[in-house]
Amino acid sequence: MTVKTRFAPSPTGRLHVGNARTALVNWLYARAHGGVMQLRIDDTDRERSREDYVAGVLADLDWLGIPADESFRQTERADRHAAAFERLVACGRLYPCYETPEELSARRAAQLAAGRPPVYDRAALALSDADRAALEAEGHRPHWRFRLDDRETSWEDLVRGRIDVHAGSLSDPVLIRADGASTYTLATVVDDAETGVTHVIRGEDHITNTAAQIQLFHALGAAEPHFGHLAWLLDAGGAGLSKRVGSLAVAELREDGMEPLAVAAFLARLGTSDAIEPVAGLDELVASFDISRFGRAAARFDPADLVQLNARQIRRLDAEGVRAPLVGLGVPDELVAPFWDAVSGNIERIAEAGRWWQVVAGPVTPVIEVDETSQAVLAAARDTLPPEPWDETTWSAWTRGIQGLTGVKGRGLFRPLRLALTAAEHGPELKKLLPMIGAARAAARLSGQDA
Ligand code: GLU
After folding, report:
1. CATH number of the domain encompassing residue 102
2. Of 285, 316, 347, at which residue does a domain stop?
3. CB count, 10 Å around CB of 137?
4. pLDDT at residue 90, as a whole number
5. What is the position in ligand 1's atom list of the atom closest to the CA of 10?
6. What pLDDT, on a 0 to 100 scale, did the predictor assign at position 247?
7. Is 8 in the pocket of ligand 1 (CB under 6 A)?
8. Which of 89, 98, 359, 373 gives 20 to 30 Å between its CA and that of 216?
9. Kind and range of the H or E element at 156?
């Protein structure tokens, strides 16, 4: 059996990190088991589905490095869904219902008020042929429900272990709407059954759907796939992600300068018992992947934690890995390696290197403090500025000399030099920046001139 997972987004919005985690876990599961991942675009809701969202899903998966191995749109298989509907009607598992949405919600409200679960009461099963004929004559079109067997449905969940759901707690699902369109439930089971999906991994909000879907697989004469239900992802404030897509969209993280590998490393381990660490590549995530390590408790997605991981992740990149963006920020080709060596530990996003390139290349408006110590240090620094060429040993030799002349050491020595040379109190090691700043700019800055 070749493992086939699937990621099945509805193109009704941008992918948020919760969706991206589902996609990633499906991709990792497939890769870790020598299988493939299918992308199914669940576009049966024609009113809310949009082409730009479909394009966004593809772009986001590509960016994360987890493109699907095969893909299709659910609407392409409408004839297959219709054929399955005919079969289910023929074998007596479907029944026509005529309630309006308003009637159904009034009934649900009454059930809840009486402290009962809001399960469909199967009133339509009691309709006689004459009742139905009368309703049709009045212009009512039926929707069709799948009659669940009144029994317990159980499965060994890849994440949560054994799950038992009694059909008594479920409404008979609607498979065909009054306008004749198939619902998600019918389309998803027919597609999963007919396209060879072996593992369905999705959010825990689908657990009750799974119980009904397993019965539908069986009614269609198909074996059900394995199921795994991932716990919710919450935002940093503890709210469910689906409620607020905005800033936690994958596209937003990309625009914010997060590296795809950092996002993948974060999402692959969030909610597991494994430490969240930078990784060498997706292969490392595949090699260490074990779906049973995901817990049942909801995990919080805190963007601040992702930024920290991003900072650690980019530190692992060598100069070749950042040459293109750094050259784009103005760093000359021959300085990419020493520049990256100097700044990679001081930034959280690659684009932030641009600020430090400005400090190297200038112009910088030096910060000169007027206290006596600073003035003495800067005077000695100007007097003893070493001749070029400069290398990483220049800084310590030079500052040792300044210390000898002025008797100033530690913070009193380094602070005025850093402020004059970089206009900042903190930053990359000066022994690494200094050779790139060079003697001409250094001399000018020590004298308080923009350079
Ligand atoms: N389109 C459904 C959703 O986004 C797919 C659920 C499933 O994986 O079956 O919730």
Report:
1. 3.90.800.10
2. 316
3. 8
4. 96
5. 1
6. 56
7. yes
8. 98
9. strand 152-157
Residue 245 has what pLDDT? 53
Q: What is the domain range of residue 224? A: 1-73+183-316
For residue 111, give both structure tokens.
């059930």
Residue 164 shares a structural domain with residue 89: yes
> Any known ligand binding at 243?
yes
* pLDDT < 70 regions, the chain: 242-247
**Predicted local distance difference test score (pLDDT) of residue 237:** 84
Tell me, in angstroms, the distance from the centre of ligand 1 to residue 345's CA: 41
Residue of 6, 10, 53, 242 to test ligand 1 pocket, by largest number of atoms within 8 Å of CB: 10
Quote the DSSP letter at residue 150.
S
**Spatial separation of the C-alpha atoms in residues 97 and 74, rounded to whole Å:** 25
| Model pLDDT, residue 238 | 84
Query: CB of 10 closer than 6 A to ligand 1?
Result: yes
DSSP letter at 278?
Answer: -
Q: What is the pLDDT of residue 244?
A: 54
Q: Is 366 within a domain?
A: no
The CB of 9 under 6 Å from ligand 1? The reply is yes
Residue 367: inside a domain? no
Residue 379 sits in a domain whose CATH number is: 1.10.10.350
Return the pLDDT at 422: 98
Instruction: Name, in order, each residue with C-beta under 8 angstroms of 242's C-beta and a sequence gap of 6 or more.
Output: 16, 18, 205
Quick one: pLDDT at residue 442?
98
66 plus 88 within the same structural domain: no
